[in-house]
Amino acid sequence: MPELHDLSPTAAYDLLQTTPHSILVDIRSAMEYLFVGHPVGSVHIAWIDEPDWDINPHFAREIEQLLTSRFQELPPKAAQVVLICRSGKRSREAASALLEAGFQHVMHIDEGFEGERDDQHHRGTLGGWRFYGLPWEQC
User: Fold this and answer.
1) What's 39-84 look like in SS3?
2) Residue 124 pLDDT more than 90?
């Protein structure tokens, strides 16, 4: 089985800018994606979402369908898939599931979108996509 690769937010951004067959998938809940914000250009496919907060049983199939439509010239499981969540925990779990499902190039952003909490229990002050000033938007 291929190895899971951890990327810093800036390394992930650089990879996405320079690698033609790469895609950033935001796996947070729909509420997080819409209201907290998300990286510009990311595609949303939730790993865990409301109302039951269960793991999406169709996650790997939905990723494969996305890759098939986006990169028609490649076998779908050969594209570079970069996953992002809030702080890197869910994306690591989801990335492992994709590797087990046969995807060949799966990475996750180890600090996520918001990073870990600081001493005052605030996110976004210690790391994460937004912390580094990478492009993001909010609905």
Assistant:
1) ECCCEECCCEECCCCEECCCHHHHHHHHHHHHCCCCCHHHCEEEEE
2) no
The C-alpha atoms of residue 27 and residue 44 are separated, in whole angstroms, by 6
> For residue 1, is pLDDT > 80?
no
pLDDT digits (tens, 9 = 90+) for 36-56: 999 999 999 999 999 999 999
Sorted by where each begins, the domain ranges of the chain are: 5-137
* Cα separation, 128 vs 2, whole angstroms: 25
- The sign of the dihedral angle between the CA atoms of 30, 49, 124, 81 is negative
Identity of residue 122: H
122 contacts 4 by C-beta, under 8 angstroms:
no
pLDDT digits (tens, 9 = 90+) for 61-101: 999 999 999 999 988 799 999 999 999 999 999 999 999 99
Task: Name the fold adopted by 5-137.
Answer: Oxidized Rhodanese; domain 1 (3.40.250)
Phi, psi of 23 (to 5 degrees): -150, 145
Cα torsion angle, 78, 80, 86, 89, sign: positive
